[in-house]
Design a protein that fits this description.
single chain; mainly alpha
């Protein structure tokens, strides 16, 4: 019995058991995973934005938090009221364009070959599933909006009371739950340092990619720029694969409005933008620990999409990087640049 007790008292064993309990708790709360993830992402990104602004504008933290949240909620409300009908109409037009591409006969041998590959590899079914997901998302817009609003409110209260929350939470150090507290603190710091900062970097990269892509598409005379901007941004949150996925509908639209030469222009433009991401943004925002081989990236995305659904494409790489950090696969000194 003494040997068994000593075994469970080992730091490594306790850490594994507590980590397993955290995973089990999160799994039992999987119906709330959207709310949990949105709250964490909003809290982390807003906290970073507030810290960045506080260094340049001498305002009390709480006042700054309220101003920031009021501005963001105002922008979201204005955008939803003004542009939601436009986006809905543009989605309909986009679907018509893609349908027109498939319905018309193609004499070009390359396009016929691509269509054959799409049919054989069931990519058409994937596109259909994607369209169903898009329609379902718009059908469940009220549910999504409620989750976003609740997450914003929770993150607002978290940031308003952050000093008090730290003080209150530190009381657990002297409680009977102290062993759990220290391990949860360990995982929490690791999670924030890796998952949070990788999400932040992905967000910035997706935003820059979207701006550059929309500028290029505007020059090339693309229609439906609002919905394309939304599509490029959300796909830009998916490392590596997002660029490839977004290229497919962009090439289809390019062919319908300008033929094969327009497809070449789009491929060249996206290649240049991807080069800017790979050689300028990634080295600036990411450390070597997130510079995964492309093979690992795709394997992680495939498994995470299978387990977490659409969220897995966005959080798969950050979660994998967090696990690498916990397992000390990379150097502890390595951090994601801020």
């Amino acid at each position: 019995m003494t040997d068994v007790a000593a075994f469970f008292q080992k730091k490594g064993v306790k850490r594994i058991i507590i980590f397993g309990l955290i995973v089990l708790i999160l799994y039992s709360l999987r119906s709330m995973i959207n709310l949990i993830l949105l709250t964490f992402i909003f809290s982390y990104l807003m906290n970073r934005l507030i810290e960045f602004t506080a260094k340049r504008i001498p305002l009390h933290r709480r006042v700054l938090v309220l101003i920031m949240y009021t501005a963001i909620v105002g922008i979201l409300t204005y955008g939803l009221v003004k542009y939601f009908p436009i986006i809905t109409a543009e989605i309909s037009q986009l679907i018509k364009q893609i349908t027109a591409f498939y319905s018309q006969p193609h004499e070009n041998a390359i396009l016929s070959f691509i269509e054959t590959i799409i049919s054989k590899n069931q990519l058409a079914a994937y596109l259909e599933n994607g369209l169903s997901f898009l329609v379902k998302s718009f059908t469940d817009i009220s549910k999504t909006s409620v989750q976003v609003i609740i997450a914003l409110i929770l993150s607002l209260f978290f940031l308003l009371e952050k000093p008090r929350l730290k003080e209150f939470t530190s009381k657990f150090k002297e409680s009977k739950l102290a062993p759990f507290y220290f391990e949860i603190e360990f995982f929490g710091k690791k999670f924030t340092r890796t998952f949070g900062k990788v999400i932040e970097a992905q967000f910035i990269i997706a935003l820059v990619n979207t701006v550059l892509t929309i500028i290029a598409l505007t020059i090339m005379g693309f229609p439906q720029l609002f919905v394309l901007a939304i599509m490029v941004f959300f796909l830009g949150l998916i490392p590596v694969a997002g660029v490839i996925i977004s290229l497919i509908p962009l090439c289809l639209i390019a062919y319908t409005i300008g033929g094969f030469i327009k497809v070449v222009y789009v491929v060249v433009a996206i290649t240049i933008i991807h080069a800017v991401e790979a050689y300028i943004l990634n080295p600036k925002l990411m450390s070597a620990k997130t510079d995964l081989p492309v093979f690992y990236t795709f394997i992680v995305l495939i498994f995470s999409q299978n387990f977490f659904g659409v969220w897995g494409l966005i959080i798969g790489i950050p979660v994998f990087v967090f696990l690498l950090d916990v397992l000390e696969v990379t150097n502890k000194e390595e951090t994601v640049e801020t």
